[in-house]
Write a structure and sequence with these properties.
Blueprint: H1 10-21, H2 24-36, H3 40-68, H4 72-79, H5 87-118, H6 129-138, H7 140-159, H8 162-189, H9 194-202, H10 211-223, H11 231-237, H12 245-273, H13 288-293, H14 299-331, H15 337-356, H16 372-399, H17 402-410, H18 417-442
Helix pairs in contact: 1-8, 1-12, 1-14, 2-12, 3-4, 3-9, 3-10, 3-11, 3-12, 3-16, 3-17, 3-18, 4-5, 5-7, 5-14, 5-15, 5-16, 7-8, 7-14, 7-15, 8-12, 8-14, 9-12, 10-18, 11-14, 14-15, 16-18
Main location: membrane
GO cellular component, one term: membrane
Transmembrane segments: 12-30, 42-64, 84-103, 109-129, 141-162, 174-202, 214-235, 247-272, 302-328, 340-358, 378-398, 419-440
């Protein structure tokens, strides 16, 4: 692989990988799922499962990537030529493509909301925030404009390559994200009545444990690290041999947990301080938070800051999704990275139109009693993602060369036989079984 398609530094790789993992799952889904599943006890299970399940899978994808030196599709073709294992990378590319078809729509909503908030059009006297959200999502022109602008931002970064595009953007955006988070958290925890929200989020209540909450924590922790579609395989393929994979993966894990903690501390104190319910579901970001921020001094400013950090997280996560597609097609064609990126962006935009219009003019079209947006989300999140994760785990355990695995695991770090054995036991016995349990649960079988 050409040197300009490598990460220039360990820090750049970690920030880019953390940015890929920190997206809708960490800042949007995690708070409302936590609110619906008991607060602190859910957080405790989430952290434990992230370290015991998500981290081993993240290490595995990085090992497949650097061990092959290839992007997601070519990696499996190189490591297991002329076998059905080559389908794993193709499932990943397909999954990322479908995920982007609705992820870009949500990114567009966030972008539109951010612009509206910066100009004072979200919080105003007598505002009905549910109606505002409905007007944005049901307007075809607003939705498609937001989607187009969101994808354009991605295209600009991806065309600039790994070092000058993704890595450089992540080096600026990720620290900015943490700075804004700290500002919002400081304001949130100093509100009157905020302590009730802090206690709800951080204090585990054993009485709140349910089987459903544990399974939700399993799924959230496992998929919060952006593993399952081999996108981290592509990021791993850009690694040099001076980076220790377990250390880098652990750093990404810790940053992901930290952002989840910050998201909870930014949201729950505000929600509780104004007497709203924490278990509001997906409308928490676009409906509940504007209502909450409207009742505090400088609410429009802090809402704008929160939306900016959410936009940053959504962008850095989408960089990875588009990169796996661009890398796969660039590897197999004589076209330049720029041409492939613009073509991929245009195709993704066209495919995203049905999902973007699912809340409006195409709202009556149903697939298995779901609108187009919800059906695509279900297909990706409940079927393709766990299937891809299971296949990656099985590939590492059953097909990949053990000598190559151990070599990649120990590169640029102190050799630790015990750490390697723990990781191997988790990958061989615990992770696949857990994925199957989560898979069956999402399908409603258990």
């Amino acid at each position: 692989m050409a040197q300009d398609n490598k990460w220039s530094s360990k820090a750049g790789f970690i920030l880019a990988s953390a940015g890929a993992a920190i997206g809708l799952g960490a800042i949007w889904k995690f708070p409302y799922v936590t609110g619906m599943n008991g607060g602190g006890i859910f957080l405790l299970f989430f952290i434990a499962f992230t370290l015991l399940l998500g981290l081993p899978m993240l290490i595995s994808e990085f090992i497949v990537g650097r061990g092959s030196g290839k992007e997601a599709v070519s990696a499996y073709e190189k490591l297991a030529p002329n076998s059905l294992w080559t389908l794993v990378g193709k499932i990943g590319v397909l999954g990322c493509f479908l995920l982007l078809s609705f992820y870009s729509v949500v990114g567009g909503w966030v972008l539109i909301y951010t612009i509206m908030s910066m100009f004072g059009y979200v919080i105003h006297g007598g505002a009905d925030y549910a109606t505002t959200f409905q007007l944005v999502t049901e307007s075809p022109w607003i939705t498609l404009l937001g989607t187009a602008l969101f994808l354009l931002a991605n295209i600009i970064v991806i065309t600039m390559g790994i070092k000058d595009g993704i890595e450089k953007a992540s080096k600026y955006l990720m620290p900015l994200l943490f700075i804004i988070f700290v500002i919002i958290v400081i304001r949130a925890v100093t509100l009157e009545g905020a302590m009730e929200g802090i206690v709800f989020f951080l204090k585990p209540e054993i009485s709140n444990i349910t089987a459903e909450a544990v399974l939700y924590a399993l799924g959230q922790s496992f998929f919060a690290l952006a593993v399952g579609f081999s996108a981290m395989v592509t990021y791993g393929s850009y690694l040099n041999n001076e980076t220790n994979i377990p250390f880098a993966a652990a750093s990404v894990c810790i940053m992901n947990i930290l952002v989840s903690l910050l998201a909870g501390l930014a949201i729950f104190p505000v929600v509780f301080s104004v007497g709203l319910e924490p278990a509001e579901g997906p409308g928490l970001l676009f409906i509940v938070l504007p209502a909450a921020f409207s009742q505090m001094p400088l609410g429009e400013l802090f809402l704008a800051l929160f939306l900016i950090l959410f936009l940053i997280a959504t962008l850095t996560s989408s960089f990875q999704l588009i990169e796996i597609i661009v890398a796969a097609f660039t590897e197999r064609s004589h076209y330049s990275r720029q041409k492939v990126t613009w073509t991929a962006g245009l195709v993704i935009f066209l495919v995203s139109i049905p999902a973007g219009l699912a809340s409006g003019v195409l709202g009556d079209i149903k697939l298995f009693d779901k609108n187009i947006f919800d059906f695509t989300d279900y297909l990706v999140s409940n079927i393709l993602l766990p299937l891809g994760a299971l296949l990656i785990a099985l590939f590492v355990v059953l097909r990949m060369d053990r000598t190559l695995i151990r070599e990649q695991f120990n590169l640029a770090g102190r050799r630790s036989a015990s750490f390697y054995q723990i990781w191997w036991v988790l990958m061989r016995y615990i992770v696949p079984v857990t994925i199957i349990i989560v898979f069956l649960n999402t399908l409603g079988i258990i």
